[in-house]
Amino acid sequence: MDVLQLARWQFGxxxxxxxxxxPLTIGLSVLVAGMQTAWVRTGHERYYKMTKFWGKLLxxxxxxxxxxxxxxxxxxxxxxxxxxxxxxxxxxxxxxxxGLVAFFVESTFLGLWIFGWDRLxxxxxxxxxxxxxxATIASAYFILxxxxxxxxxxxxxxxxxxxxxxxxxxxxxxxxxxxxxxHTIAGAFSVAAAFIVGVAAWHLWRKRNGxxxxxxxxxxxxxLGGWVGVVAFAALAITGDTQGKLMFEQQPMKxxxxxxxxxxxxxxxxxxxxxxxxxxxxxEDVKTFNVPALLSFLAHSDFKTEVKGVEDxxxxxxxxxxxxxxxxxxxxxxxxKPIDYTPSLPVTYWGFRxxxxxxxxxxxxxxxxxxxxxxxxxxxxKWFPRLALxxxxxxxxxxSAGWIFTEMGRQPxxxxxxxxxxxGVWMFTAQAVSNLSTGEVWTSLLALTSLYAVLGVVELFxxxxxxxxxxxxxxxxxxGQPKTESLSFAY
Length: 491
Known about the structure:
This is Cytochrome ubiquinol oxidase subunit I. By secondary structure, this protein is mainly alpha-helical.
């Protein structure tokens, strides 16, 4: 592999790994704040215990997320310095806001929440929990604003061969960002909900034949996770529809690649599943099961809109952006070579369906959890906790597939041209990579992948330890302790 491929693999591995922690932190932080709110308002001990238990797991995951996230921004200077020089005047602003505003507030109030259980009043301590959880959402907002600018550059002028920001407000209110943010947050709640359902179902089954003083904790958690998972999937469907319509306008090649739509159709059918090699340009070699005119509706809210196919779009891109890469030695083997404007169709086609399918499975397990716990029932069969534990992985897979589709579907661009934006504000991925040797990138790729593998083992060990420890593992010893209202968090 050349430097470009290695750099892309490194960024992909580290990003997907980091994003396994991010949605769980966002979703759990809000749900834990909600649990603590219920405790402060009602005084019921089960909400206090829920806050303690799920809060412990939140902290473990947050710590790992911070460690793995630090590498992300360093990579812009390591492997992508040409990209950093091109977008630095724009990209730096939302990233600085994320670090100086959101992450600072997030860390400060998390510290107050951890150490303030027996030092702050209930309401002040609760306010710290909400401040932390809202700061995690703000952090995601600034990161997504930066990513959305790469997908749809706005608020800039093109000066001396580089974009110069003329409106931070335009960058932060980019319609692509405003659609991506609720979709990402809904995905985070889906992850947190599946995690809660899986762990709570296992604990309920674990002590099904004996007395369990914490049974109400697990049953309430299970139902909370079920409801949140169902609502989150509904939100994902609504926000995903909004993103699809923007994708039709802003990145038509991504929409065509999501359907492996080789030829323009009017109206366009939505492919449920394909049999054959979707990477082949000859669409007659692939058998698909379609819903007539549905893709037109998803693109433009009607059943007659024309949707461009890959072959027609390639011609348009070649006419506007060229047929060959510049004859620049910095491009290495790609210098002067033909530009492939077609993303990897197997990745985009199946990634899009994995995203939807695994999200639906997660919501289905949530519905099942609500049904089995209706009218005070406790699930007592061994198949449900096993299914719920396996279900923890489904929204993680769906989220990862969605991000892989989003990023790989924009290739060969790292900054995608805005159809109604400023000419020149776009960049090929091949032009963005640093001038490094393959040995240097191999070294960092192997080192970071190995480090992340070790961190993954540590996270799984700690999560397993505190999950198996249950509520007892996060509460201080009962002997000689004051009432639960003034107990330390024991962290």
